[in-house]
Write a structure and sequence with these properties.
Strand content: under 5%
Largest sheet: 2 strands, antiparallel
Strand order of the largest sheet: 1-2
Number of helices: 4
Shape: rod-shaped
Low-confidence stretches: 1-16
Radius of gyration: 33 Å
Structural class: mainly alpha
Order of helices and strands: HEEHHH
Helix content: 55-70%
Mean pLDDT: 81
Number of strands: 2
Length: about 120
């Protein structure tokens, strides 16, 4: 009975010893190091961490790009290297906004032209 109790304690001690919190392994030698370590204390190799960039386009910036196409174009140019998916969305909404603005301008022109034309016809003798 005592051996079983001792084995259980040894097992729980081993688990506590080998369960690292916030640990990772060196990319060169495989030594267990801190997750935040920039250099391995065993071999001196630098530990490059991959940066995760959130590339989901913001709904507010898409709306801004639609109503102010120049802002969308600027966002497209500035963010095309770092966040290409977001940049493409902003550029797309800027183009849609620009085309919509042109279409409304043409429609407005014909509406004003028709109203002015009918006004002249009403006053003609």
């Amino acid at each position: 009975m005592e051996n079983q109790t001792e084995n259980t304690n040894v097992t729980s001690e081993n688990q506590q010893q080998f369960e690292p919190l916030h640990k990772s392994f060196c990319r060169e030698c495989g030594t267990m190091i801190s997750e935040k370590a920039d250099i391995c204390p065993n071999c001196g190799a630098t530990q490059h961490r991959a940066k995760v960039i959130d590339d989901t386009p913001s709904a507010g910036l898409k709306v801004l790009s639609f109503f102010i196409p120049l802002a969308g174009l600027i966002l497209f140019v500035v963010q095309s290297k770092d966040t290409p998916i977001s940049a493409k969305e902003y550029g797309k909404w800027a183009l849609i906004g620009f085309c919509t603005g042109i279409a409304f301008s043409i429609i407005w022109y014909f509406v004003v032209l028709a109203s002015v034309s009918s006004m002249f016809k009403a006053f003609s003798f």
